[in-house]
Amino acid sequence: VDNLRKSFITPLEGEDIDILRQRLDDIMDSIEKAINRMVLYQIPKPFPKEIREYIKIIKEAIGEINLGVRKIRNVRKYQESLHHCCQRLNELEDLGDVVNRTALKNLMNIPQTNPEKNLEIIKLKEIYETFENAIDYCEDVGNIFESVLIKNR
């Protein structure tokens, strides 16, 4: 990070670069944790609809982040595009919240007829929460972009 600060002229302050780096790492860690849990807990294919929905949201959010990272180098030129990116990341996080509430509601409505179902509920709840964390971190990146936009007006 120090070398980056010294060798690269950027509209991002050193603190912004560090926070952005941390959030990008948090996104990757959350995705890795969720996938590792899916393997460890032997979640069968086809994956539950909720997992597919989380993955779709995360994939789109990462696309927005990729676009934002490329455009933030010239923040003044791409202000409108970056602002749209921030809005879309916020919308995706809201959508992730809806998926999370629905997923948890569906889990709680599973008939608890045997202990195996209880274990399945616990496993899926943990995976859902980890995917939700990844989506929250994606929104955090959008907030960092928004902060950079404000600083560079």
TrEMBL record:
<dbReference type="InterPro" id="IPR018445">
    <property type="entry name" value="Put_Phosphate_transp_reg"/>
</dbReference>
<dbReference type="InterPro" id="IPR038078">
    <property type="entry name" value="PhoU-like_sf"/>
</dbReference>
<dbReference type="Pfam" id="PF01865">
    <property type="entry name" value="PhoU_div"/>
</dbReference>
<dbReference type="InterPro" id="IPR052912">
    <property type="entry name" value="UPF0111_domain"/>
</dbReference>
<protein>
    <recommendedName>
        <fullName>DUF47 domain-containing protein</fullName>
    </recommendedName>
</protein>
<comment type="similarity">
    <text>Belongs to the UPF0111 family.</text>
</comment>
